[in-house]
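User: I'll paste a sequence; please echo it back and then give the predicted structure.

Assistant: Echoing your sequence first, then the prediction.
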Amino acid sequence: MGPSRQLRKVVDETNVLDCKCGVEMVIREEVFQDFFDRTVKYNLAFIHFPLCRKDNGRVLGYDNAHGFHERHYMGEAEKTEFVSYEDTLEQFLDEVQALRRNHEKEYRRRKLG
């Protein structure tokens, strides 16, 4: 494989966050670029078992692992339109924030109620 075909991983991060319900949440980001610094492969995942028992706890995710862009939500996957990796990352983080807020609000409501 020539240098123009080799991919290098430029982001490999896993962030573990505490949830008010006592179970950890995981946000995972992997990004691969080609020789020309173009993002050609990515995987974003928000994992939180209290919200989703399917798909290994992946509540939300975006990737292009199968040659097309997909959005995963609560164990279901659908093709999604792709503009850029940066736009996809921003959308993912906004959705994660909204999911976390809703989950913590529901948890407080159940705890008080």
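The longest strand covers residues 8-17. Strands lie at 8-17, 25-33, 39-47, 58-63, 70-73, 76-79.
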